[in-house]
Design brief:
Layout: E1 15-18, E2 21-25, E3 36-39, H1 42-50, H2 57-79, H3 83-86, H4 88-95, H5 102-117, H6 124-152, E4 157-161, H7 176-185, E5 189-195, H8 202-214, E6 218-221, H9 226-231, E7 235-240, E8 244-246, E9 251-254, H10 257-266, E10 270-274, E11 280-281, H11 298-301, E12 302-303, E13 306-307, E14 320-323, E15 330-333, E16 336-339, H12 343-350
This protein binds 5-S-methyl-1-O-phosphono-5-thio-D-ribulose.
Residues 55-58, 101, 163, 165, 169-170, 175, 200, 202, 241-243, 253-254, 319 line the site of 5-S-methyl-1-O-phosphono-5-thio-D-ribulose.
Protein backbone atom coordinates (compact mmCIF):
# COMPACT_ATOMS: atom_id res chain seq x y z
CA UNK A 1 0.00 0.00 0.00
CA UNK A 2 1.11 3.61 -0.44
CA UNK A 3 2.62 4.33 2.90
CA UNK A 4 5.76 5.39 4.70
CA UNK A 5 8.51 2.83 4.39
CA UNK A 6 9.36 1.39 7.81
CA UNK A 7 13.09 1.05 8.47
CA UNK A 8 12.55 -2.66 9.24
CA UNK A 9 9.72 -4.71 7.71
CA UNK A 10 7.10 -6.11 10.10
CA UNK A 11 5.06 -9.23 9.26
CA UNK A 12 2.35 -7.04 7.69
CA UNK A 13 4.78 -5.53 5.16
CA UNK A 14 5.10 -8.24 2.50
CA UNK A 15 4.44 -5.62 -0.21
CA UNK A 16 4.43 -1.82 0.01
CA UNK A 17 4.12 0.93 -2.58
CA UNK A 18 6.22 3.90 -1.57
CA UNK A 19 7.29 6.94 -3.60
CA UNK A 20 6.65 5.37 -7.02
CA UNK A 21 8.40 2.07 -6.20
CA UNK A 22 7.27 -1.36 -5.11
CA UNK A 23 9.01 -2.70 -2.02
CA UNK A 24 8.91 -6.39 -1.18
CA UNK A 25 10.18 -7.86 2.06
CA UNK A 26 12.81 -10.40 1.05
CA UNK A 27 11.20 -13.52 2.54
CA UNK A 28 14.18 -15.68 1.59
CA UNK A 29 16.38 -14.20 4.29
CA UNK A 30 13.86 -13.92 7.15
CA UNK A 31 14.14 -14.13 10.10
CA UNK A 32 17.90 -13.66 10.02
CA UNK A 33 17.47 -10.36 8.20
CA UNK A 34 14.31 -8.27 7.74
CA UNK A 35 14.89 -6.05 4.71
CA UNK A 36 13.11 -4.62 1.70
CA UNK A 37 14.06 -4.96 -1.94
CA UNK A 38 12.88 -2.14 -4.25
CA UNK A 39 11.36 -2.71 -7.72
CA UNK A 40 10.90 -0.39 -10.71
CA UNK A 41 10.42 -2.95 -13.49
CA UNK A 42 7.67 -5.54 -13.94
CA UNK A 43 10.16 -8.12 -15.23
CA UNK A 44 12.03 -7.89 -11.93
CA UNK A 45 8.78 -8.40 -10.01
CA UNK A 46 8.14 -11.56 -12.06
CA UNK A 47 11.64 -12.77 -11.18
CA UNK A 48 11.01 -11.97 -7.50
CA UNK A 49 7.84 -14.08 -7.50
CA UNK A 50 9.66 -16.98 -9.19
CA UNK A 51 12.60 -16.72 -6.78
CA UNK A 52 10.32 -16.60 -3.68
CA UNK A 53 11.28 -13.09 -2.57
CA UNK A 54 7.50 -12.83 -2.21
CA UNK A 55 5.44 -15.99 -1.80
CA UNK A 56 2.08 -17.10 -0.48
CA UNK A 57 -0.90 -17.01 -2.83
CA UNK A 58 -2.54 -13.68 -1.93
CA UNK A 59 0.80 -11.89 -1.56
CA UNK A 60 1.81 -13.13 -5.01
CA UNK A 61 -1.44 -11.65 -6.37
CA UNK A 62 -0.83 -8.31 -4.65
CA UNK A 63 2.78 -8.17 -5.88
CA UNK A 64 1.68 -9.03 -9.42
CA UNK A 65 -0.94 -6.26 -9.35
CA UNK A 66 1.76 -3.72 -8.44
CA UNK A 67 3.92 -5.36 -11.12
CA UNK A 68 1.22 -4.44 -13.65
CA UNK A 69 1.46 -0.81 -12.47
CA UNK A 70 5.19 -0.87 -13.21
CA UNK A 71 4.46 -2.56 -16.55
CA UNK A 72 1.97 0.15 -17.47
CA UNK A 73 4.32 2.94 -16.49
CA UNK A 74 7.17 1.35 -18.46
CA UNK A 75 4.97 0.70 -21.51
CA UNK A 76 3.77 4.31 -21.54
CA UNK A 77 7.34 5.63 -21.22
CA UNK A 78 8.39 3.44 -24.15
CA UNK A 79 5.41 3.62 -26.49
CA UNK A 80 3.13 6.46 -25.26
CA UNK A 81 -0.29 5.94 -26.86
CA UNK A 82 0.80 2.47 -27.97
CA UNK A 83 1.16 1.32 -24.33
CA UNK A 84 -1.63 -1.26 -24.47
CA UNK A 85 0.33 -3.33 -26.98
CA UNK A 86 3.65 -2.64 -25.28
CA UNK A 87 2.44 -3.86 -21.88
CA UNK A 88 1.66 -7.39 -23.10
CA UNK A 89 5.17 -8.83 -22.77
CA UNK A 90 5.34 -7.85 -19.11
CA UNK A 91 1.87 -9.23 -18.40
CA UNK A 92 2.96 -12.55 -19.90
CA UNK A 93 6.14 -12.53 -17.80
CA UNK A 94 4.09 -12.02 -14.65
CA UNK A 95 1.62 -14.76 -15.61
CA UNK A 96 4.48 -17.20 -16.16
CA UNK A 97 6.16 -16.58 -12.80
CA UNK A 98 4.50 -19.41 -10.80
CA UNK A 99 1.80 -21.91 -11.84
CA UNK A 100 -0.28 -23.03 -8.85
CA UNK A 101 -1.53 -20.04 -6.85
CA UNK A 102 -4.56 -18.82 -8.77
CA UNK A 103 -4.45 -15.43 -7.04
CA UNK A 104 -1.68 -14.52 -9.49
CA UNK A 105 -3.93 -15.05 -12.51
CA UNK A 106 -6.93 -13.57 -10.70
CA UNK A 107 -5.03 -10.34 -9.97
CA UNK A 108 -3.68 -10.01 -13.49
CA UNK A 109 -7.14 -10.67 -14.95
CA UNK A 110 -8.56 -7.93 -12.75
CA UNK A 111 -5.79 -5.53 -13.79
CA UNK A 112 -6.48 -6.44 -17.43
CA UNK A 113 -10.11 -5.51 -16.84
CA UNK A 114 -9.00 -2.07 -15.68
CA UNK A 115 -6.63 -1.75 -18.66
CA UNK A 116 -9.55 -2.44 -21.00
CA UNK A 117 -11.44 0.54 -19.54
CA UNK A 118 -8.57 3.02 -20.03
CA UNK A 119 -7.80 5.28 -22.97
CA UNK A 120 -4.33 5.73 -24.46
CA UNK A 121 -3.12 8.35 -21.94
CA UNK A 122 -0.70 7.54 -19.09
CA UNK A 123 -2.29 4.61 -17.20
CA UNK A 124 -0.06 4.71 -14.11
CA UNK A 125 -2.41 6.45 -11.66
CA UNK A 126 -5.44 4.34 -12.62
CA UNK A 127 -3.50 1.08 -12.44
CA UNK A 128 -2.01 2.05 -9.09
CA UNK A 129 -5.48 2.77 -7.70
CA UNK A 130 -6.61 -0.71 -8.80
CA UNK A 131 -3.57 -2.42 -7.29
CA UNK A 132 -4.09 -0.59 -4.00
CA UNK A 133 -7.75 -1.68 -4.04
CA UNK A 134 -6.69 -5.32 -4.52
CA UNK A 135 -4.24 -4.94 -1.64
CA UNK A 136 -6.73 -3.29 0.72
CA UNK A 137 -9.51 -5.73 -0.16
CA UNK A 138 -7.22 -8.66 0.64
CA UNK A 139 -6.35 -7.18 4.01
CA UNK A 140 -10.05 -6.63 4.80
CA UNK A 141 -10.93 -10.15 3.62
CA UNK A 142 -8.36 -11.58 6.01
CA UNK A 143 -9.82 -9.66 8.94
CA UNK A 144 -13.28 -11.01 8.10
CA UNK A 145 -11.97 -14.58 7.72
CA UNK A 146 -10.28 -14.17 11.07
CA UNK A 147 -13.64 -13.45 12.70
CA UNK A 148 -15.49 -16.21 10.86
CA UNK A 149 -12.81 -18.83 11.45
CA UNK A 150 -12.50 -17.98 15.14
CA UNK A 151 -16.26 -18.51 15.54
CA UNK A 152 -15.82 -22.14 14.46
CA UNK A 153 -13.36 -22.92 17.24
CA UNK A 154 -15.15 -24.08 20.34
CA UNK A 155 -12.83 -23.77 23.25
CA UNK A 156 -9.24 -23.29 24.23
CA UNK A 157 -7.33 -25.76 22.08
CA UNK A 158 -4.00 -26.31 20.42
CA UNK A 159 -3.76 -26.13 16.62
CA UNK A 160 -1.35 -27.21 13.91
CA UNK A 161 -0.53 -25.06 10.91
CA UNK A 162 1.56 -25.88 7.86
CA UNK A 163 3.73 -23.63 5.70
CA UNK A 164 3.10 -19.90 6.18
CA UNK A 165 -0.38 -18.53 5.62
CA UNK A 166 0.27 -15.46 7.69
CA UNK A 167 0.56 -11.75 7.05
CA UNK A 168 3.70 -12.31 4.99
CA UNK A 169 1.76 -14.58 2.62
CA UNK A 170 -1.00 -12.02 2.04
CA UNK A 171 -1.81 -8.33 1.78
CA UNK A 172 -1.69 -8.29 5.60
CA UNK A 173 -3.07 -10.06 8.72
CA UNK A 174 -2.97 -13.53 7.14
CA UNK A 175 -5.48 -16.22 6.22
CA UNK A 176 -4.83 -19.25 8.45
CA UNK A 177 -2.76 -17.11 10.82
CA UNK A 178 -5.45 -14.42 10.63
CA UNK A 179 -7.84 -17.01 12.09
CA UNK A 180 -5.18 -17.89 14.66
CA UNK A 181 -4.71 -14.21 15.57
CA UNK A 182 -8.44 -13.63 16.01
CA UNK A 183 -9.02 -16.92 17.86
CA UNK A 184 -6.06 -16.33 20.15
CA UNK A 185 -7.39 -12.86 20.99
CA UNK A 186 -10.72 -14.52 21.85
CA UNK A 187 -9.00 -16.99 24.18
CA UNK A 188 -9.75 -19.98 21.94
CA UNK A 189 -6.23 -21.04 20.98
CA UNK A 190 -3.63 -21.86 23.59
CA UNK A 191 -0.71 -22.88 21.36
CA UNK A 192 0.20 -23.22 17.68
CA UNK A 193 2.39 -26.04 16.42
CA UNK A 194 4.13 -24.84 13.27
CA UNK A 195 5.31 -27.53 10.87
CA UNK A 196 8.77 -26.56 9.67
CA UNK A 197 7.69 -27.19 6.02
CA UNK A 198 10.56 -28.69 4.07
CA UNK A 199 12.26 -27.68 1.87
CA UNK A 200 11.71 -23.90 2.03
CA UNK A 201 11.06 -23.91 5.78
CA UNK A 202 8.26 -21.36 5.61
CA UNK A 203 6.97 -22.67 8.95
CA UNK A 204 10.29 -22.39 10.76
CA UNK A 205 11.35 -19.11 9.20
CA UNK A 206 8.11 -17.19 8.71
CA UNK A 207 5.26 -18.67 10.76
CA UNK A 208 7.36 -18.93 13.92
CA UNK A 209 8.64 -15.37 13.35
CA UNK A 210 5.14 -13.95 12.83
CA UNK A 211 3.58 -15.70 15.82
CA UNK A 212 6.44 -14.74 18.12
CA UNK A 213 6.08 -11.15 16.89
CA UNK A 214 2.43 -11.31 18.02
CA UNK A 215 3.19 -13.00 21.34
CA UNK A 216 1.21 -16.13 20.37
CA UNK A 217 2.72 -19.32 21.88
CA UNK A 218 4.29 -21.32 19.05
CA UNK A 219 6.19 -24.59 19.01
CA UNK A 220 8.09 -25.62 15.92
CA UNK A 221 7.96 -29.26 14.90
CA UNK A 222 9.37 -31.41 12.11
CA UNK A 223 6.71 -32.11 9.47
CA UNK A 224 6.77 -35.79 10.39
CA UNK A 225 6.04 -35.04 14.08
CA UNK A 226 2.39 -34.12 13.47
CA UNK A 227 0.92 -37.63 13.79
CA UNK A 228 2.35 -38.34 17.23
CA UNK A 229 1.24 -34.90 18.42
CA UNK A 230 -2.28 -35.59 17.17
CA UNK A 231 -2.34 -38.91 19.00
CA UNK A 232 -1.78 -37.00 22.24
CA UNK A 233 -5.27 -35.50 22.05
CA UNK A 234 -4.49 -31.83 22.68
CA UNK A 235 -4.97 -30.58 19.11
CA UNK A 236 -8.48 -29.57 18.03
CA UNK A 237 -7.86 -28.12 14.59
CA UNK A 238 -5.47 -28.10 11.67
CA UNK A 239 -5.69 -24.60 10.16
CA UNK A 240 -4.09 -23.93 6.78
CA UNK A 241 -4.32 -21.58 3.82
CA UNK A 242 -4.65 -22.49 0.15
CA UNK A 243 -3.13 -21.71 -3.22
CA UNK A 244 -6.16 -22.79 -5.22
CA UNK A 245 -9.54 -24.27 -4.34
CA UNK A 246 -11.32 -26.20 -7.10
CA UNK A 247 -15.04 -25.98 -7.84
CA UNK A 248 -15.71 -29.19 -5.88
CA UNK A 249 -13.87 -27.92 -2.79
CA UNK A 250 -10.59 -29.80 -3.32
CA UNK A 251 -7.78 -27.72 -1.82
CA UNK A 252 -4.28 -27.23 -3.24
CA UNK A 253 -1.83 -26.08 -0.59
CA UNK A 254 1.80 -26.57 0.43
CA UNK A 255 3.11 -30.10 0.01
CA UNK A 256 2.31 -32.06 3.15
CA UNK A 257 -1.14 -30.56 3.72
CA UNK A 258 -2.82 -33.65 2.25
CA UNK A 259 -0.98 -35.97 4.62
CA UNK A 260 -1.86 -33.71 7.53
CA UNK A 261 -5.55 -33.86 6.59
CA UNK A 262 -5.48 -37.67 6.33
CA UNK A 263 -3.91 -37.87 9.78
CA UNK A 264 -6.36 -35.34 11.20
CA UNK A 265 -9.35 -37.37 10.02
CA UNK A 266 -7.87 -40.52 11.59
CA UNK A 267 -7.55 -38.72 14.92
CA UNK A 268 -10.92 -36.94 14.84
CA UNK A 269 -9.27 -33.53 14.43
CA UNK A 270 -10.98 -30.91 12.25
CA UNK A 271 -9.39 -29.27 9.21
CA UNK A 272 -10.04 -25.60 8.42
CA UNK A 273 -8.89 -23.94 5.19
CA UNK A 274 -8.91 -20.15 5.30
CA UNK A 275 -8.66 -18.50 1.89
CA UNK A 276 -10.18 -15.47 0.16
CA UNK A 277 -12.53 -16.03 -2.77
CA UNK A 278 -9.68 -14.86 -5.04
CA UNK A 279 -8.19 -18.30 -4.28
CA UNK A 280 -11.30 -20.15 -5.51
CA UNK A 281 -11.05 -21.27 -9.13
CA UNK A 282 -14.48 -22.37 -10.36
CA UNK A 283 -12.92 -23.08 -13.77
CA UNK A 284 -11.19 -26.20 -12.47
CA UNK A 285 -13.66 -28.95 -11.68
CA UNK A 286 -11.47 -30.80 -9.21
CA UNK A 287 -8.01 -30.78 -7.71
CA UNK A 288 -6.79 -33.15 -10.41
CA UNK A 289 -6.86 -30.22 -12.85
CA UNK A 290 -4.75 -27.90 -10.69
CA UNK A 291 -1.20 -27.52 -12.04
CA UNK A 292 1.24 -28.50 -9.32
CA UNK A 293 4.53 -26.64 -9.37
CA UNK A 294 7.66 -28.80 -9.44
CA UNK A 295 10.70 -26.86 -8.31
CA UNK A 296 14.40 -27.54 -8.70
CA UNK A 297 15.39 -30.85 -7.00
CA UNK A 298 18.42 -28.97 -5.67
CA UNK A 299 16.07 -27.39 -3.10
CA UNK A 300 15.63 -30.86 -1.61
CA UNK A 301 19.08 -32.34 -2.12
CA UNK A 302 20.65 -29.84 0.23
CA UNK A 303 19.79 -28.08 3.45
CA UNK A 304 21.08 -24.82 4.89
CA UNK A 305 23.33 -24.24 1.88
CA UNK A 306 25.02 -27.64 2.25
CA UNK A 307 24.51 -30.74 0.10
CA UNK A 308 23.00 -33.60 2.14
CA UNK A 309 22.06 -36.27 -0.44
CA UNK A 310 24.63 -38.36 -2.32
CA UNK A 311 25.92 -36.96 -5.61
CA UNK A 312 23.71 -38.04 -8.55
CA UNK A 313 20.81 -38.85 -6.21
CA UNK A 314 17.48 -38.18 -7.93
CA UNK A 315 14.78 -36.19 -6.17
CA UNK A 316 11.23 -35.06 -6.81
CA UNK A 317 10.17 -31.69 -5.56
CA UNK A 318 6.43 -31.05 -6.01
CA UNK A 319 5.76 -28.06 -3.80
CA UNK A 320 1.97 -28.37 -3.49
CA UNK A 321 -0.51 -31.21 -3.05
CA UNK A 322 -4.27 -31.53 -3.23
CA UNK A 323 -6.41 -32.33 -0.21
CA UNK A 324 -9.70 -33.89 -1.31
CA UNK A 325 -12.79 -31.94 -0.27
CA UNK A 326 -14.05 -34.84 1.87
CA UNK A 327 -11.11 -34.32 4.24
CA UNK A 328 -11.89 -30.61 4.69
CA UNK A 329 -14.32 -29.68 7.48
CA UNK A 330 -14.56 -25.97 6.70
CA UNK A 331 -13.50 -23.55 4.00
CA UNK A 332 -13.52 -20.04 5.45
CA UNK A 333 -13.73 -17.14 3.00
CA UNK A 334 -14.58 -13.47 3.39
CA UNK A 335 -18.01 -14.23 1.90
CA UNK A 336 -18.81 -16.92 4.43
CA UNK A 337 -18.01 -20.42 5.66
CA UNK A 338 -18.56 -23.61 3.65
CA UNK A 339 -18.84 -26.66 5.90
CA UNK A 340 -18.02 -30.06 4.32
CA UNK A 341 -17.51 -28.49 0.87
CA UNK A 342 -19.21 -29.81 -2.26
CA UNK A 343 -19.68 -28.46 -5.78
CA UNK A 344 -23.17 -27.21 -4.92
CA UNK A 345 -22.00 -25.37 -1.82
CA UNK A 346 -19.02 -23.82 -3.62
CA UNK A 347 -21.35 -22.69 -6.44
CA UNK A 348 -23.65 -21.07 -3.90
CA UNK A 349 -20.70 -19.29 -2.25
CA UNK A 350 -19.35 -17.95 -5.54
CA UNK A 351 -22.71 -17.10 -7.15
O1 LIG B 1 5.49 -21.91 -2.01
P1 LIG B 1 4.78 -20.88 -1.20
O2 LIG B 1 5.54 -20.46 0.01
O3 LIG B 1 4.30 -19.74 -2.04
O4 LIG B 1 3.49 -21.65 -0.67
C1 LIG B 1 2.59 -20.95 0.14
C2 LIG B 1 1.49 -21.80 0.64
O5 LIG B 1 1.38 -22.97 0.31
C3 LIG B 1 0.48 -21.15 1.52
O6 LIG B 1 -0.02 -22.05 2.46
C4 LIG B 1 -0.68 -20.66 0.66
O7 LIG B 1 -0.20 -19.84 -0.38
C5 LIG B 1 -1.67 -19.90 1.43
S1 LIG B 1 -1.02 -18.32 1.88
C6 LIG B 1 -2.20 -17.40 2.63
Amino acid sequence: MTTALPSTPTPDDAALWHQDRLYLTDQRVLPERAEFLGYDQAADVADAIRAMVVRGAPAIGVAAAYGVVLAGRGAYAAAEEGWKAAIEADLERLVASRPTAVNLFWAIRRMRGRIAQLDTSDPTAALLAEAIAIHEEDRAANRRMGELGAELIGGPTEVITHCNAGAMATGGYGTALGVVRSAFAAGKISRVYADETRPWMQGARLTAWELMHDGIPVTLQADCAAASLMAGGTVGWVIVGSDRIAANGDVANKIGTYGLAVMARHHGIKVMVAAPTSTVDMEVASGAEIPIEERDPAELLGCGGRRIAPEACEARNPVFDVTPAELVDAIVTERGVVLNPTLEKMRALMA
